[in-house]
Structures are given as structure tokens and as C-alpha cells.
Amino acid sequence: MARIVQKFGGSSVANAERIFRVAKIITDAYAKGNEMCVVLSAQGDTTDDLIAKAEEINPNASKREMDMLLACGEQMSIALMAMAIEKLGYPVVSLCGWQVGMNTSSTHSFARIKKVTCERVKEELDKKRIVLVAGFQGVDKYGDVTTLGRGGSDTTAVAMAIALQADLCQIFTDVDGVYDRDPRRYPEARRFGRLSYEAMLALIEGGAQVLHDRSVLLAREHGLTIEVLSAFTGAPGTLVG
């Protein structure tokens, strides 16, 4: 039995069909006896849609209230995924950032993770439940909701894997690993089987968007290996570390 942290991006859960596809990936791993903690991003363009709604009301809204609004996207994802997993007959619970002890700085819209307690997550795993965690969000010392900025769900997943001392941290995307260039634009692009942290950071600096640099820096600090793989093909991905 292994303790696995998985993260699925917005395109992986963009509609009902994809939600059930991801639910099958999660429950298949759970059925093998693994403890599963899964971090989810907001569906598709939900974050952009929420920003547009805010601009309709107040283009100069405070960052605190923007965080309250934008955190709704991830909360919707984990609730819908929990419903799908329930329908498949598996025990599951969805938790927001404050519920998992994702403690951050008070810099709204660009908060930094300070500590992850994750006691609630451990309790739920001990009860043999699949735990779904809202990515991209946390809570500051005042009890206010914060968000981590673009790519924050990657950082959430890495932070959870470190706090839980997970055996595996998998980042699922819409491509089957890390390439030397965008495989959707360049058919001749080459996929890497393994990359060092430094090589991954160099690719990110060059424009690669498959991982966020903060997640790689955090993984490097704690010696955590990340696997980047496709939510659609089931093929082995790229190991970073």
C-alpha cells in the first residue's frame, strides 16, 4: 500500500465526462489498496469566468474579496468530483484549503504557503476515505481565505505530498509528460523520461507551462520526486527530481 497525492488540472475536469474519467483513475488506484489524496483545479475556464463576473460588478474589487470569489472554482471541482466518486461506490470527502490546514501568508492573490498541518486529511485517510483537496487556496492567520496565484494547485499538491510524507506525487495534465517544446504545436517534440529540478526550472523559464516553478522549487527543497503524466492516455510520464 502506498500513500499517493495526485493533482488534476482544469482541463482534466472540464466537463462531466472528464470528471468521471478522472474519478475512474482515482478509484482504480484506491482499489489497489492505496491511500489517495487528490488536489483539483477549477474546471476549464472557471477562474477566468469568475474574474469576468467580478469586473462586471467592480473592476477595482479588493484582493481579499477576489480571493473569496476565485476560491469558489476549486471548491466546485472537489464537490463535483466527490459526487462522481460517490456514484461509483467509494468513500470520499472533499475539503477546502482551510480544512486541510493550508496556512499561508496574507498576501491576497499571491499568498505563500507557510505551513501545512493536514491533521484532518490524515484522519480521513485513516477512515479509508479518498480525500479531495481544493488546490490554489489556503487560509491566513486572520482566518481569511487566500489564493496562491496561477499554478497554485501544483504547489498545493507538492506541499500536501511533503506534509503527508507521500510515496508518490503525480501531476496529471493534458499532455503525457514534459517535452522539449509544445507537442501540440510541434509533432517532432521530444518527451523526457526524467529531468532534474534544474532542467525543469530552465524549461519553465523558457516558457514551458506544464509545472509551476514554485512547485518545482518546493519539491527540490524537500527532495520530492514529481511524476508529470496525462489524465487521458494512462501512459507513463516524466519524472522530475
Describe, in plain words, how this protein is organized in 3D.
- By secondary structure, the protein is α/β, with parallel strands linked by helices.
- The chain has seven helices and twelve strands.
- The chain has an eight-stranded mixed sheet, sandwiched between helices.
- The longest helix is centred in the first third of the chain and has 25 residues, at 63-87.
- The chain is globular, with a radius of gyration of 17 Å.
- The relative contact order is 0.16.
Summary?
This protein is α/β, with parallel strands linked by helices.
The spatial strand order of the largest sheet comes to 3-6-2-1-9-11-12-10
Q: Provide the structure class.
A: alpha/beta
Quantity of strands, as a count: 12
Number of helices: 7
Main sheet characteristics: 8 strands, mixed
Order of helices and strands: EHEHHEEEHEEEHEEHHEE
Tell me the fraction of residues in β-strands, as a range. Answer: 15-25%
Mean pLDDT: 95
Features:
7 helices, alpha/beta, 12 strands, 21% strand, two-stranded antiparallel sheet, eight-stranded mixed β-sheet, 241 residues
Write the layout of secondary structure elements.
Blueprint: E1 3-8, H1 16-31, E2 35-40, H2 46-57, H3 63-87, E3 92-95, E4 102-104, E5 113-116, H4 119-126, E6 130-134, E7 137-139, E8 145-147, H5 152-163, E9 168-173, E10 194-195, H6 197-205, H7 213-222, E11 226-230, E12 238-240
Parallel strand pairs: 1-2, 1-9, 2-6, 3-6, 9-11, 10-12
Antiparallel strand pairs: 4-5, 7-8, 11-12
